[in-house]
From TrEMBL:
The keyword Metal-binding does not apply. GO terms for molecular function: carboxypeptidase activity. Keywords: Carboxypeptidase, Hydrolase, Protease. This is Muramoyltetrapeptide carboxypeptidase LdcA (Peptidoglycan recycling). It comes from Micromonospora pallida. CDD domains: Peptidase_S66_mccF_like. Residues 205-335 form the LD-carboxypeptidase C-terminal domain. Belongs to the peptidase S66 family. Residues 16-131 form the LD-carboxypeptidase N-terminal domain.
């Protein structure tokens, strides 16, 4: 297992970069973006600094990489936050200046398509943070979710162990950003269901690795994932997106990672709560339950075949559902299958 460095943390009053390494959605949803920036200032005391492509949809990958490199190079910037995900960050990371990133380590926060950059930093020996989005989480309608904010605050400002907790309520049905009036309305939520534990009952500690399953599959196809021997011993963190991949697709993607030798090396697996609603597929409550159950069965099948001794936790709030817990990507995670507790070191 390759050792990795935790970057220094920001302090209230610091300048932090706000970038769009994936989709420049702030261009078409400026009111959501600006709400997130106001909350970044008010709730965390941080001063956001935007870059040329932050509000540009369809910016050239080289320009986005240039902004990322500039954010890491600027000594006055103490953290880097993504505005949102997308679907083409795979084309951005090859243009990064890795020497600059290594020489100027900073905490990077993002998820979904930002799995690309988190994995890239991981291969450079730097810990990143899976979670946090200026639009989705800081710009959440009504108010930011308290559990998200607590986790994000701890990840931004502390370096201690932090115990994750099951959400008392959760949701996967965002409101329509095309209607600015919805920013005053809380999104619909369901009562919390807790975590579901499966597999071995023991305590596992290791660095987190993984992210969005669809992006991991693309990274594997582009041969940008470290060899299985380097990732052995990691706590595998995995979740799926609003594209709602079928259970068959989920199984096949995990099977491919298993055939690559990856799954066998993971002693513990944290599975994000399945997002089961999208504007293109507005599922009923029953359809959502059926979708989530089918996905869980597919994941269980793959892990039974390729990682039968792993400790497994389902429905951890770490992905595309609301709230979202931040996971230190490459940082320490302890999964206690006996006491049924999950702690992370930020």
């Amino acid at each position: 297992m390759v050792s990795r460095m935790y970057p220094p943390k920001p302090r209230p009053g610091d300048r932090v970069a706000v970038v769009s390494p994936s989709a420049g959605l702030p261009e078409i949803f400026p009111y959501v973006h600006e709400l997130g920036l106001r909350r970044l200032r008010k709730e965390f005391g941080l001063e956001p600094v935007e870059y040329p492509t932050t509000r540009v949809l369809g910016a050239d990958p080289r320009d986005r990489a240039r902004d990322l490199t500039a954010a890491f190079a600027d000594p006055s910037i103490t953290a880097v936050l993504a505005t949102i995900g997308g679907d083409d960050q795979l084309t951005v990371t090859p243009h990064l200046d890795d020497a600059v990133l290594r020489a100027n380590p900073k905490p990077f926060f993002g998820y979904s398509d930002n799995t690309n950059l988190l994995n890239h930093l991981h291969r450079l020996g730097l810990v990143g943070y899976h979670g946090g989005s200026v639009l989705v989480h800081l710009g959440r309608p009504g108010a930011p979710h308290p559990l998200t904010m607590e986790s994000l605050r701890a990840a931004l400002f502390t370096s201690d162990w932090y115990e994750l907790r099951p959400a008392r309520e959760w949701g996967d049905e965002p409101l329509d950003w095309n209607d600015p009036s919805t920013l005053d309305i809380e999104p619909p939520m369901f009562p919390g269901t807790g975590w579901t534990w499966a597999g071995a009952q023991r305590t596992v500690e290791g660095p987190a690795w993984g992210g969005n399953l669809e992006i991991l599959h693309w990274l594997a196809a582009a041969d940008r994932i470290a060899p299985a021997v380097e990732l052995a011993g990691a706590v595998f963190v995995v979740e799926t997106s609003e594209e709602l991949p079928s259970a068959v697709e989920v199984y096949r993607m995990l099977r491919n990672l298993g055939e690559r030798g990856l799954l066998a090396g993971f002693p513990a697996v944290l599975v994000g709560r399945a997002k089961a609603w999208d504007f293109a597929r507005p599922h009923t409550v029953e359809q959502r339950r059926e979708y989530a159950d089918a996905q869980r069965a597919a994941i269980t099948r793959a892990l039974t075949e390729y990682a039968p001794d792993a400790v497994i936790v389902f429905d951890v709030d770490l992905g595309h559902t609301d709230p979202q817990l931040v996971i230190p990507y490459g940082g320490d995670v302890r999964v206690d299958g006996v006491a049924r507790r999950i702690t992370v070191r930020y």
